[in-house]
From TrEMBL:
Predominant place of localization: membrane
Protein name as catalogued: Sugar ABC transporter permease
Keywords assigned by UniProt, alphabetized: Cell membrane, Membrane, Transmembrane, Transmembrane helix, Transport
SUPFAM superfamilies listed in its UniProt record: MetI-like
Key word Transport present: yes
Region (Disordered): 299-320
Protein species of origin: Roseburia yibonii
Taxonomic lineage: Bacteria, Bacillati, Bacillota, Clostridia, Lachnospirales
Length: 320
């Protein structure tokens, strides 16, 4: 009788290797997240040296936030995100299509990749401080404009709504378009060259190839880029915080939701801060789900649509 070989299982080693991640996540992410949700249902703040709470008040923090300027700050966040994201995705798509097009024969691609990615390596706080210095009334931009005769007096870029929002959008664009370009280039290079060669044989021009082949085939990366950008936009804090000195000027038109959250944390109002964090979590979840549903293609080869069409035709024939 043959002895049965004892099967060896290495699953325990896999669990052992991933255990540190779950321990770290549990201690530093999951517990604080649960605690944040718990605080959102309590009155818990500091008034002078006196600490109030924690006293359970139910949904009052959530109701108070809806009656506050939270909606206005949400609109500010959306506008600032759009100003930065729209040129970012457009320029990134154009550059990615150019750099991956073998017909253009662009030299020094590695150099250009490094150059466009460099702003992503600069800290946002340093970037904001640099722009604050450049575009201040006594800064070099105003000096150049006055010296060449374009303006007679300094322009207060940060004194107008358009100027401040444009600067914030420009900084977000410069910091992130390089990273987006590299990701889109990787996605385009993952497309089989046979597809592009077949399109050339069919007589497709560059624009048709871009819209009918490239864009549909990099849809998963576009969805990922859009979702991460939405999450990053909702977390926009450091650039407008430094550029406006935490005030969201002019007239709080540059105040974002995270800056509003930070003001509650500074005043030790942990209940309101917790409720606002829950609102941000819900909003980001809903937006990401909508984007995923819009960009996810469950029938990339058209087989499901063809099967449904055949089923409808068979039902029609059966009725006859």
């Amino acid at each position: 009788m043959k002895k049965r070989r004892k099967s060896l299982s290495y699953a325990k080693w896999g669990y052992l290797f991933i255990l540190p991640f779950f321990i770290t996540y549990f201690i530093f992410s999951l517990i604080p997240m649960i605690d944040t949700v718990r605080y959102s249902f309590f009155e818990y703040y500091r008034s002078g040296i006196k600490e109030i709470g924690p006293n359970f008040i139910g949904l009052e923090n959530y109701i108070s936030l809806l009656q506050s300027d939270m909606v206005k700050y949400g609109e500010n966040t959306l506008i600032l995100w759009l100003i930065g994201f729209i040129p970012q995705i457009v320029i990134a798509l154009i550059l990615a299509a150019w750099f991956t097009d073998v017909r253009l024969k662009i030299r020094g691609k590695q150099f250009f990749k490094v150059v466009i990615y460099l702003p992503n390596l600069i800290m946002a706080s340093a970037f904001a401080l640099l722009f604050f210095t450049l575009f201040s009334t006594n800064g070099p931009i105003n000096s150049i404009l006055m010296s060449i005769g374009i303006t007679k007096s300094p322009i207060d870029f940060m004194g107008s709504v358009l100027g401040t929002r444009s600067l914030i959008g420009l900084m977000n664009f410069l910091m992130w378009f390089g990273n987006t370009t590299i990701m889109l280039m990787a996605a385009i290079m993952g497309i089989s060259m046979d597809v592009f060669e077949a399109s050339d044989l069919d007589g497709c021009n560059s624009i048709q190839r871009f819209f009918y082949i490239t864009l549909p085939m990099i849809r998963p990366i576009l969805a990922y880029t859009l979702i991460t950008s939405i999450i990053g936009g909702l977390q926009m804090f450091d650039v407008p915080q430094i550029l406006t000195n935490g005030q969201g000027n002019p007239d709080r038109t540059s105040m974002t939701l995270i800056m509003f959250l930070n003001s509650h944390l500074k005043s030790k109002n942990y209940g309101m801060a917790g409720a606002l964090s829950v609102y941000l979590f819900i909003i980001s979840g809903i937006l990401c789900f909508i984007v995923y549903r819009m960009t996810n293609d469950n029938d990339p080869d058209g087989s499901k649509a063809a099967a449904k069409k055949r089923a409808r035709e068979e039902r029609r024939k059966g009725k006859r």
